[in-house]
Amino acid sequence: MPAGNKRGAKVRLILTFALAGLVVALSACANLPGSDGTRGWHVGGDGDDDSITLDIRNDNANDARIYLRWNGDRRRLGYVSSKSQESFQTDWRPNSLRIEVDFLAGRGFVSDPTSVSPGQRLDFRIPVNY
User: Fold this and answer.
1) Among 24, 66, 82, 85, which is most buried by a count of CB atoms within 10 Å?
2) Is residue 25 part of a domain?
3) Regions of the chain short of the pLDDT cut 50
4) What is the residue range of 65's domain?
5) What are phi and psi of 27, to 5 degrees?
């Protein structure tokens, strides 16, 4: 490989890592609560089931893709349209749960972690100001 191509590959690698760092930093900033402080979890009801139910209300003007994060594992849950609510049922895992919201027309955020027990029903609100 010519020297110029090796240098170009190194520059692309450095830019890739810099971009990844920027994404992580922006995600951390996006994780801050909205000005009304109403984004996030409400956990209720214990049960015996090996699943959990998530009721996600999207008060935002943007449609959102929803992902579940169980201690680093990321899995797509579904889609919640603007100004609507959807219910999802998924398998329970014995780790802390975070919800990642990916807006189709803008940046998203990752929730704070919460502990979940089998059979629980969780309410999660996506605020207007994201």
Assistant:
1) 66
2) no
3) 17-39, 41, 43-44, 46-47
4) 31-126
5) -65, -40
